[in-house]
Specification:
Blueprint (H helix, E strand, L loop, with lengths): L8 E8 L11 E5 L14 H5 L9 H8 L3 E6 L33 H8 L5 E6 L5 H7 L2 E4 L19 E6 L2 H12 L13 E5 H6 L2 H17 L1 E5 L6 H27 L7 H8 L4 H22 L3 E6 L12 H21 L3 E7 L5 E7 L5 H15 L8
Parallel strand pairs: 2-3, 2-4, 7-8, 7-9
Antiparallel strand pairs: 1-3, 4-6, 5-6, 5-10, 9-11, 10-11
Helix pairs in contact: 5-12, 8-9, 8-10, 8-11
Length: 401
């Protein structure tokens, strides 16, 4: 095992050469250690998982698509244990070092992937996003990142967490690379029923109020520029409160996690780090009736979001409510932050919608993310809009501007 000074990798010397050529020629990528790589045994961030599973027979579909488009795989990256955290602190494999916020967590669960991309160890990195596991580390580490439309990128060969929310996401230091990876992974699956451009900007007031003052002030300038350019309106997404949306998400996610991993946990009795064991224990208490009570709320939220966005609308929100918290905060404090993170990240999750986060700097110089959410299957159009419109309009304001 080779470990870089950034502690980004579980296995840094894992390499796979391209199987074809295309838009990703000469690019290298890191992969979260939950994607199957032929001959490699995934750890999923936990030594008991590693010890109780064998090597994969073939690559995950997403990995195969990247290799077929000319990219070279270099390194299996650290993940939070079984992907069930948003912090990036792994009790067994250590905390990857956030290159753009020293002394702060990198965010999880795609922590090593984010650090590999942010530190320049890889041109881009592959992760998974169920409850924010690509978007949050992208925000904390100053990266562009995307959670795609649910089901658009195949999850074949990826260890599941909560299948009706799981997505394959990716991160990069620049939007051009983010787009090129999207073209390789999504291909011709983009919605083509209309040619409408994004003309409406929808500012979710309750989402902005969830963020702390420094975050709001740091993103106020970019938001004002975009509002002046587009047909802008302000709205309240959740009159009952985004905490209620997050509770719906948490119940459905927790129930599915219990189904996905409960049998293995009961049989293996694995060792989990602080906080992880408690989350899995709670997930195991959820029953079918809990899921059934939450399902109608998810369907209503999804319908409302799709209607709100239409063909040409973009929802703009802070990606996370704050800059990256310090490493080693007390459990109660980090859980309060996590609850606020979920109020923002559950929006796209409940809607099954694509969300791209764009990096900016806080008033203290730390990374902070601004996110755009579009209607379903408008992922490539959203990626192009970020570059053609947002990046150009905000030249000099973003981390890479």
């Amino acid at each position: 095992m080779i470990r870089s000074g950034w502690n980004a990798y579980i296995k840094e010397d894992l390499t796979v050469e391209p199987t074809g050529g295309g838009g990703l020629d000469r690019l290298e990528f890191a992969v979260k250690d939950v994607f199957a790589i032929a001959g490699h045994t995934n750890s999923a961030g936990n030594p008991d998982w590693l010890d109780s599973h064998g090597p994969a027979e073939e690559h995950a579909e997403a990995v195969s698509r990247l290799l077929g488009n000319g990219a070279r795989l270099r390194g299996a990256a650290v993940t939070d244990e079984l992907m069930f955290s948003l912090n990036g602190e792994n009790h067994y494999y250590g905390t990857p070092v956030n290159p753009r916020a020293p002394g702060c967590i990198p965010g999880g669960s795609s922590s090593g992937s984010a650090v590999a991309a942010a530190a320049g160890l890889a041109d881009f990195a592959l992760g998974t996003d169920t409850g924010g596991s690509v978007r949050v580390p992208s925000s904390y580490c100053g990266l562009y990142g995307i959670r795609p439309t649910h089901g658009l990128v195949p999850l074949d060969g990826v260890i599941p967490l909560a299948p009706s929310f799981d997505t394959v996401g990716w991160m990069a230091r620049d939007w051009e690379t983010l787009l090129r990876v999207g073209q390789a992974l999504i291909g011709g699956q983009e919605a083509t029923s209309d040619g409408a451009e994004f003309r409406r900007l929808i500012v979710a007031g309750d989402a902005w109020e969830t963020a702390d003052r420094d975050c709001r002030q740091s993103l106020a300038g970019p938001l004002a520029v975009l509002e002046a350019m587009m047909d802008s309106r302000r709205t309240t997404l959740a009159p009952q409160g985004l905490a209620a949306w997050a509770a719906t998400f948490r119940t459905l996610q927790g129930y599915e996690i219990g189904l996905a991993h409960g049998e293995w946990i009961a049989g293996r009795q694995p060792r989990f780090g602080p906080g992880i064991a408690e989350r899995f224990a709670w997930a195991g208490t959820l029953r079918l009736e809990d899921r059934d009570r939450a399902l109608p709320a998810r369907e209503r939220i999804r319908e409302e979001l799709i209607a709100l966005l239409g063909d040409d609308g973009l929802l703009v929100i802070p990606t996370a409510p704050c800059t990256a918290p310090r490493i080693g905060l007390a459990g109660a404090e980090i859980e309060r932050t996590r609850a606020k993170v979920m109020q923002l990240s559950c929006i796209a999750g409940l809607g099954g919608l694509p969300q791209v986060t764009m990096p900016f700097r806080s008033q203290d110089g730390l990374p902070v993310g601004l996110s755009f959410i579009a209607g379903p299957r408008r992922d490539l159009r959203l990626l192009r809009w970020v570059g053609d419109v947002a990046v150009r309009a905000l030249q000099g304001q973003s981390v890479t501007g």
